[in-house]
Amino acid sequence: MSGGTVDRARAMAAPLGRPALAAAAFVVLAAVFFAVIGRNPLAMIGVVLEAAAGDSYAIGESLVRATPILLCALATALPARVGLISVGAEGQFYAGAIAGTGTVLSMLPTPGWTMLPLMLVTGALGGMVWSLVAGLLRTGLQVNETISTLLTNYVAALLVTWLVYGPWKNPASQGWPATVEFPAAARLPALFDSRVHAGLLIGIALAVVLHLVLTRTRWGLVLDVLRSNPRAGLVAGLDFRRNALIVMALGGALAGLAGIAETASIQGRLQSDIAGGAGFSGFLVAWLARNHCLRIIPLSLLVGALLASGDGLQMFAQVPSSVTLVIQGLLFVAVLLVNGWLDRKRPA
Amino acid sequence: MKLHRLVRPLLAAALALGAHAAHSQTIGYIYVGPEKDYGYNTSHDLGRQYVEKTVSGTKTLHVENIPETAEVSRVMERMIKSGASIVFATSYGYLDYAIELGKKYPKVAFMHAGGLKTGDNVGTYWANSDDAIYLAGMAAGSVTKSGKLGFIAAFPIPQVVRSINAFTLGAQAMNPKVTTTVVWTGGWLEPAKEAEATNSLVDAGIDVIGEQVDSPITIAQTAEKRGIFVVGKDVDVSKFAPKSVLTGASWNWGPTMVKVVNEIKAGTWKPSHIRGDLKDGTVVLDPFGPAVTEPVRKTILAKKADILADKFEVWSGPMMAQDGKELLPAGKAMPMDMLESMGFLVKGVIGTIK
């Protein structure tokens, strides 16, 4: 194998090349799967494409689904820069949703222009506080952050359930456990004539900013040292605890923002189950993107589009929902394959 | 848009939808669980199939496993964008989303299962199973040898509490001494917990089980293995548990759905709360299993005839609460609000609403 081929392959694996290769591998895998279950692969892939991006409505819905995944992926990637494995985006999402909802409810019935910014800030703070619990447990008591974030996810989700069944239940909802509907003042501006909201732009902007900060600043370098060589970091006088708390806090804030933005702009009220697995999808995206903030953008869009297209696939191709789950799983397999293949070719 | 135009014809050909291109009406159906759950969702899908078969020129779209969140807005809107002029939103939590979307699409008709709110173009449909469950309870009361019945239920909401009480009252009509032990599973579709609950009830000497969860299938099959009996609900699963199923209270949504669809087509439909029951055939007493003897069948069918002729009312006194306090004096019918918000268990039920 000539070095040239490897170099070219690696050049293609620049931020956008890797997801593109993964997408191609995914199409091949999906085609094989459709053929195996006896459906015409071309027609079925056509259905997926149509449901994910066939018209402005489909594209909008794919972007809607991608928005919280993008923010939750960033919330996972950031702690990973110092080597922390957080699976807590789902819980931080709910904590942000709770905190932001608290702000909205406390400002009713006279919402002013301050409601939206206050709601977003408290939402981010909610996610931050939730994430810091795991961060402090790690830095103070050496409690494994993967376990603590995983467990606090359940606590946050159950807290939402308790609130909407109890103190925050809308008395006019006839038994349905949800808060009152948010006022228009709490909605982020929508883009075009769709449900896509400004949270998407915020997420993309944050991904770019984070990428620059992590790759171009001294702080980014500090994090790299702490992750790849903690001993050297110690010798150089770098403070692991302080930096671990900072990345956990910032990550939590991002997921919290995702939670309150989704609650206010898409759901229009707080209720159970609204994360729809965005935190866990975000974790997978971050992992597939190797915590590379720019690569997270296209992968989030890809995963969001695939999740949003599931019902279209059921509707137009008359397949059970399990088929859409398999297709979603194949996307991850495709990315794994591509990552594995490219990394194997990397010189030792 | 371009891709849309490109893919559509390809699809039509490949999926052999082309033959039905001249549909005058598209109807969307959304289910909260699996379409093949042999329970709540299957009952609605049977209704869908009936509509497709009965109303000519009708095409249906259906999607399963859609959570009761803003996800359902996307699904409903995609159906509408694909030409659906009627949407059946078959789960309770879909109601607010249907009403919201109804404002955006005033020409689309929405039908919601069980809701208590309507909109300008959002109506609801539901059916009262109490009578059929009472009759099925009679079968349970006649078959039990231990006098101990069980009831496996999802959540202590009024609709479910009514079923537990109706089942118990029916059984007591045949055998006044029977008790009903209630087990809550805390979820509509919890097959592992349902099987576990069935087994522990059998171990406690219970020999007939009633249920109100998403589907009777797990409980019926477990009961078949353990050699005890069950009373089903929503869909008749006797072919999966031929010895165990005594009878059941099944839905028959088809005719109601066809009626609504025809009214919408004719332009005479007005959103309302359509409520069916045993009398109008939306609820059906399932065929009896082999364990129900001929004299018992006759007694139950006679009671059914009384109900149909308004000679017998399930929710009337004398009725005692669990603790022996009188709920209704003899001959008094239950007031509507007491029925709709039922928060008590009748005498003979073992368990709590908590």
Care to describe what's here?
The complex is a heterodimer of chains A (348) and B (354). Chain A is mainly alpha-helical and 348 residues long. Chain A has helices spanning 3-12, 17-36, 41-53, 56-80, 89-107, 115-141, 145-165, 199-216, 218-228, 230-235, 240-267, 278-288, 293-317, 321-344. Chain A has a domain at 70-300. Chain A is 74% helix and 0% strand. In chain A, helix 5 runs antiparallel to helix 6. The radius of gyration of chain A is 21 Å and the shape is globular. The mean pLDDT of chain A is 89. Chain B has 2 domains: 21-127, Response regulator (Rossmann fold, 3-Layer(aba) Sandwich), CATH 3.40.50; 130-250 and 283-350, Rossmann fold (3-Layer(aba) Sandwich). Chain B is 38% helix and 21% strand. Chain B has helices at 2-14, 40-54, 71-81, 95-104, 130-143, 158-174, 191-203, 217-226, 254-266, 294-308, 336-340, and strands at 25-30, 58-63, 84-89, 109-113, 122-127, 148-153, 179-184, 208-212, 229-234, 245-251, 273-276, 283-285, 319-320, 326-328, 349-350. In chain B, the strands form 3 sheets. Chain B has a 7-stranded mixed β-sheet with strand order 12-10-9-8-6-7-15, sandwiched between helices. Chain B has a 6-stranded parallel β-sheet with strand order 2-1-3-4-5-11, with helices on both faces. Chain B is globular, with a radius of gyration of 22 Å. The N and C termini of chain B lie far apart (53 Å). Classes of the chains: A mainly alpha (348), B alpha/beta (354). Chains A and B meet through helix 3, helix 4 and helix 13 of A and helix 1, strand 2, helix 3 and helix 4 of B.
